[in-house]
Design goal:
The structure holds two protein chains of two kinds. Chain A is an alpha/beta fold. Chain A is built from 24 helices and 17 strands. In chain A, the strands form five sheets. In chain A, strands 10-9-13-11-12 form a five-stranded mixed sheet. A four-stranded mixed sheet of chain A has the order 2-1-3-4, with helices on one face. A four-stranded parallel sheet of chain A has the order 7-6-5-8, sandwiched between helices. The longest helix of chain A is centred in the last third of the chain and has 19 residues, at about 510-525. By secondary structure, chain B is α+β, with helices and mostly antiparallel strands. The chains are: A alpha/beta, B alpha+beta.
Chain lengths: ~600, ~130
């Protein structure tokens, strides 16, 4: 009898920390200890606490091991699996109670305020085994929809739930489906935007890798609701594990008759194909994505007509994000009232955030809408490391804006964020501390959007490039009086005239940093000074003679030969030769090198 | 998959053994002491006896192993934890006793008094 399950994360994050080798080692060790009939090793999706991977959870105790290495496996098997003695040095610190007992994961700072709906199966099931999905109510929602509900009833439930698109725009999902359903019967499509192009976003990736069947089931439900029999999942090629898991899942669903002809004997047929992206951020824009599926270069087009009326190959198409779909099976099973009881008045349900940047608990979190930014940063995120102060949080990636400390207590929902000049976006949430330059951050995102602009419309193709040139002049120490006003005017022009969301939102990082950190721009322009000591052109490294002990470590590590000095005598940096790489700053143990 | 009934049957089959992974498991549990003293006294075979008996009876129960509970003289030691009840500790468990404990206590709900740990005198064993 299998008495123990050992769950190991097989998401991209932990895989790059060699979790697959860990799983192999575990299976070998279990076998050689004669425990194969008692212990099952399971590869799962992302648990969320990515900063501490590879993650391993041992059931039935629920012991949460973090940063597990292959060398730890023999000890885990002989001490924990055989003798019931958890290897405490590997247990996630917060679950270790003083009396030696192990606390529940749900009581830790990271998980306490989370509510996993879209991520409910991630970390709990083997994504490559459809029977595990079925064990946890998989495909029950599809069965209920097909055998007990009419297409109209399905749409009504989704509408009543208040679900809004999780890709960033927040359009009411049920309404979108009703537009497609209202089109005359015929060839229609269901499409999933799994391109996830925002730098720093990995919410969709984790769902695709950890619970692919949730997406398949939801797309079939959508197909039934609007009258479509074919679905496309447009997934970026940079997610090879997600692509593989999707293809395995589709194959298994087909084998079980959950995709294909006459599902559940109702006469409804639905099948899904994957289409791979090829490195174009613009193909995350819905009309450009559709063009790409059709075989053309990904370029957006004006709307109307909207995809729900005329989409792929000119046919009515429902186009939704991965996370939006991941919520659908639960809504159908548990009801609209259950979902709409979560969240705020206009933003129902939960949102998944990819927490990154200067934060202790980097990883994936899912919280009810209305959770404040402070709760996410200080409680769930575990605060800013190294005792630094919070400066801003960037939401929405290159399309979003920054949220400064004064708005830390804002309840996060679609409308609140838009009101303060940011946006929900797809869920990327980058935390910035006092050592970040906001002008440089705007430059970074603008550099990205300029590179990714498809070039079809002039405001984006030329406008964003000119905007970037202005920002780069400023970070390069050549800002001119009047630059801020000129940038604001250009931003407004681009926003109002660009053809698609990429161009329309490209100015957001610039506009929101000017709004909340105008003083930094002014320091760069008028004083030629970067307050955060980031912009290299305005940076000087200096050795404080009184603190220097002449150990020569800095001189030896300098790649430009810019540091001179005799042994045991104070050293000096030659600013003409210095390339501002910061190597000496990192090396000095006396704190004698400062940035000015 | 041609009907809801077929899906439900598939779910039942798939759920077999999944209670091991259940964070909110509220069923019966067996805890077998596998400290060095227990292993020396034959706890490994007792552990096997419990898992085999539970599997044979198709019970939804969790089996945990634990470090020495301090009752080294009573090894092999096992505890039965039923929801809402005080844990009952069995001492000098053998393969045969394990099978009986599974049948009468784990499944039947009534402790097997004569196998519980002797705390003081022989006479106090009710």
């Amino acid at each position: 009898m299998i008495r123990s399950h050992v769950l190991v994360c097989g998401g991209t994050g932990c895989t790059s920390s060699r979790s697959l080798a860990l799983i192999d080692a575990m299976e070998r060790e279990v076998a050689s200890a004669g425990l194969s009939g008692e212990v099952k090793v399971v590869k799962t999706g992302c648990f969320g606490l990515c900063a501490l991977g590879p993650i391993m959870i041992v059931y039935p105790e629920g012991t949460f091991y973090s940063m597990v290495k292959e060398e730890d496996v023999p000890e885990i098997v002989s001490e924990h699996l055989l003798r019931g003695r958890p290897v405490t040095r590997l247990v996630y610190g917060e679950t270790l109670l003083p009396d030696g007992e192990v606390a529940s994961l749900d009581d830790t700072g990271f998980y306490k305020k989370q509510m996993r709906v879209a991520l409910r199966n991630c970390g709990r099931i083997d994504p490559e085994d459809i029977t595990e999905y079925i064990a946890f109510d998989g495909y029950q929602a599809l069965a209920k929809a097909l055998t007990r509900m009419t297409p109209g009833e399905v749409i009504d439930v989704v509408k009543a739930s208040g679900l809004r698109g999780r890709g960033g725009a927040g359009f009411p999902t049920g309404l979108k489906w009703s537009f497609a359903a209202a089109q005359p019967p015929g060839e229609k499509y269901v499409c999933c935007n799994a391109d996830e192009g925002d730098p720093g976003a990995f919410m969709d990736r984790s769902i695709l890798e950890g619970d692919p069947h949730a997406l398949l089931e939801a797309m079939a439900i959508a197909g039934y609701a609007v009258g479509a029999n074919r679905g496309y999942i447009y997934v970026r090629a940079e997610y090879p594990i997600a692509v593989k898991r999707l293809q395995i899942a589709i194959g298994q669903a087909r084998d079980m008759g959950l995709l294909g002809e006459d599902i559940f004997g109702t006469g409804f047929s639905f099948d899904i194909e994957t289409r791979l992206g090829a490195g174009a951020f613009v193909c995350g824009e819905e009309t450009a994505l559709i063009r790409s599926i059709e075989g053309h270069r990904g370029e957006p087009r004006p709307r109307p007509p909207f995809p729900a009326v005329s989409g792929i190959f000119g046919k009515p198409t429902v186009q939704n994000n991965v996370e939006t779909y991941a919520n659908v099976p639960r809504i159908i099973l548990l009801g609209a009232e259950w979902f709409s009881a979560i969240g705020t008045e206009k933003s129902k349900g939960t949102k998944v955030f990819a927490l990154g940047g200067h934060i202790t608990n980097t990883g994936l979190v899912e919280v009810p809408m209305g959770t404040t930014l402070r709760e996410i940063v200080e409680e769930i995120g575990g605060g800013i490391p190294h005792g630094k102060k919070f400066k801003a949080a960037q939401t929405g990636g290159p399309s979003g804006g920054c949220i400064p400390a004064e708005h830390l207590d804002i309840p996060i929902d679609y409308d609140n964020l838009t009101a303060i000049g940011s946006m929900m976006g797809s869920g990327g949430l980058i935390v910035l501390d006092e050592d970040s330059c906001m002008v440089d951050m705007a430059r970074y995102y603008l550099d990205f959007t300029v590179d990714e602009s498809c070039g079809k419309c002039t405001p984006c193709r030329i406008g964003t490039r000119r905007l970037l040139e202005m920002v780069e002049r400023i970070t390069g120490g050549n800002g001119k009086s009047g630059d801020i006003e000129r940038m604001e005017e250009l931003c407004r022009y681009i926003r109002e005239n660009a053809l698609c969301g990429l161009g329309q939102s490209a100015p957001n990082p610039v506009l929101s940093t000017i709004r909340y950190f105008r003083d930094e721009y002014e320091a760069h322009i008028h004083e030629k000074r970067c307050p955060a000591h980031v912009c290299k052109s305005m940076l000087a490294y200096k050795i404080i003679a009184e603190k220097c002990i002449g150990c020569t470590l800095c001189a030896r590590v300098c790649p430009a030969g810019a540091i001179a000095g005799e042994l045991k005598k104070p050293h000096v940096i030659d600013p003409e030769k210095c390339v501002k790489c910061g190597a000496c700053y990192e090396k000095c143990r006396q704190g004698a090198i400062v940035k000015e | 998959m041609k009907s809801m009934e077929e899906l439900n049957a598939a779910r039942e089959r798939a759920r077999d053994g999944m209670w091991v992974r259940d964070d909110n498991f509220a069923g019966p549990r067996v805890r077998v002491s596998m400290g060095d003293c227990g292993i020396a006294a034959g706890a490994r075979d007792v552990l096997d006896a419990f898992t085999q008996a539970i599997a044979a009876a198709k019970l939804e129960a969790q089996v945990l192993v634990t470090d020495c509970l301090g009752l080294c003289g009573q090894e092999p030691v096992a505890q039965i934890l039923l929801p809402g009840k005080t844990p009952v500790t069995y001492g000098k468990v053998t393969r045969e006793r394990a099978v009986e404990i599974v049948k009468r206590h784990l499944a039947g709900g009534r402790p097997v008094a004569e196998y519980t740990v002797a705390v003081r005198d022989e006479e106090e064993k009710a």
